[in-house]
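User: Hello, can you help with two protein structures?

Assistant: Certainly.
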Amino acid sequence: MLLPALVDHADHNDDWVVFIGSSALVAAVCALVAVATRGERIVMTQRLGFLLVTCVWLTASVVGALPLYLSGLGITFETAVYEAVSGVTTTGGTALTGLDSMPRGVLLWRSLLQWLGGIGLVAMMVLILPQLRGGGQSLFQLESSDRSDKLLPRFSQLASALVWVYGGLTFACAAAYYLAGMGLFDAVNHAMTTVTTAGFSTHDASLGRYGTPAILLVAILFMTLGALPAVLYIRIFLPRSFQRWSDPQVLVFLAICLVFGLALSAVRYFLEGVAAGTALLTGFFNLISLITTTGFSTQDYMLWPNAALGILLPALFIGGCAGSTAGGFKVNRLVILFSLVSANFRRLLRPHAVERLKYGRIDITPAMIETLMIFITLYLVLVVAGTIAMTMLGVDFLSAFSGSLSAVGNVGPGFGPLIGPAGNFSALPDGALWVLSFLMLVGRLEIVTVLILLSPDFWRDR
């Protein structure tokens, strides 16, 4: 919070006092907790891990909302919480308007929330999700008992490597934005929210404020890099590690982006008569923005032909690769589902054949299949429940459905007159913001991590 305080103080904005006060309050509470638990011996268990991750994200959301609520924005507590949750979960949907005239300290704080949330998410996936056998497929080799098959010997080393990866990508992205013509402050903010596939902007028009194709090309490149597994970049620098590692989801994800991007560009070129270069640039930009769950926009794609919306809607669902900051259903699960369907067809043709299902070098076990089916069911149940809850609060069906789907997948924008790319979430009632905040948190933590806390068995002593 001291960084936004410095920026506001330099701009002679009184909100620097708010950031200083919030920082002092949070530091005091943390100091009291540290003193109260000093000398305690903590035994990390799987149950404690689930509880810890959920509590950390809840705490981060409240802490992130504190300076927003106390600042001179004059927003409600519900709006502040929604904005903070959208930040730390790297969703990118905003309930704030007037970003162009907003204090720079607040804009920097929003970007910092997304950058820190993105790094924290990947670290959580490495530490917790391999135990679930349903998330982070590209990281499954970390649970192997063979140390030579691990990426790095200790988790602390892996966490440090992740920070260096995202720090390096952020620096490169900021430099590329600056060289492409973006101002320094905007370049730094957009770099933090591009690399983490988050989507907060410093302008109401998002990247549509910049008409420079070079800026959109930079965004396309780094959104794509941010949606790839983080371990991919670490393995590049490890001797012979990259050659031993292959993740099917990477090629599938890139293929989906290419096919869907070309299809969307073709729709704009043939049905709208847009110039070929513009059709390719806007088609790929908006497709990559949605499928990586970043949420940047350049124009209102709701005005495009229905065929274009038919291409963008699946992108809202698919998401990026497991082991990245991107949300959505995740490509690794699609690969496993395709393997299951193909195997089922082959068994129908050859009932007595015996085959091993594999995901890359990893065997697909019955436990993984069971967890995947549970995840799919819970994913759909959350979207339906969120849609019902929001329609009961007076939100139109299209906005309620796409908003719930966007929140669970941590995408950002949705479809409809309220929350489409030309609008934001400020028009939604406070109750709907609470619903979406819950869905964003549950979706960001891969659903099971949070919902398992609601099980009575979780709290029983074993």
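That covers the first. Now for the second protein you mentioned:
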Amino acid sequence: MIKQVYKILSLAMLLSLSVTAWATPTKVVVRAKAKDAKFIGSSVGGAMIIIRDATTGEILAKGMTKGSTGNTGLIMRKAHERYQSIVDDRTAKFEATIDIKVPTFVTIQVMAPYNKKQATITAQTQVWLIPGKDIAGEGIIVEIPGFIIDILAPQTHAFTSLGKTKNQINIVANVVMMCGCTISKGGLWDGDKMEAKALIKRNGESYKTVELKLGKQVNTFEGVLKTTETGLYEITVYVYDARTGNTGVDKVNVVIGK
């Protein structure tokens, strides 16, 4: 009896080892790159990467990109030849090792920048993973379009008195590229060549449009809403770059009294 149990256990172990041997560790590197800018890494909170079996939906790997935004000169200023990489050892990435037995069709979902929910874009691509055939080096690069916009003034649900503000409300928005890269006057990302406006609603109805211009501080766009009317105001700030098609939006609601 003991011998039979021993044989069964031995057979089970052999089968387990055999099944395990079928699964081959396969490395996958995924990066999120801001459109017309650099890579989305630790400095802006990273990008969430989820790799799923495209057939079953099973999550095979997930995690955040970590690392730097990359080499500005290499990414933004130099011409690139075929097969020439635009990343270095510090450039942000997510790296996973997935055990697969057969060629597996996967969906790679990227949510970035993950810590800025009002600006987060979800993009995805699909690829076949072949057992033992790593997708390393530069890896799979998924582009993330847009801008990160945060309205700094007026503050959310602020109660503002027209008497104290002399019938004008200052609008200030912080705007950066999706990688956190700086927007400035005449810079690599030139704010003077971008369109920025605040669309104003009063009591649910379209009211005014205010043009925003670059402020003294980098990454800021500013404008003034002039009004003599009290009410519930919704301010939607957008930035648009016609050269790239990049867009971004943020909203705030304020109450204006006498």
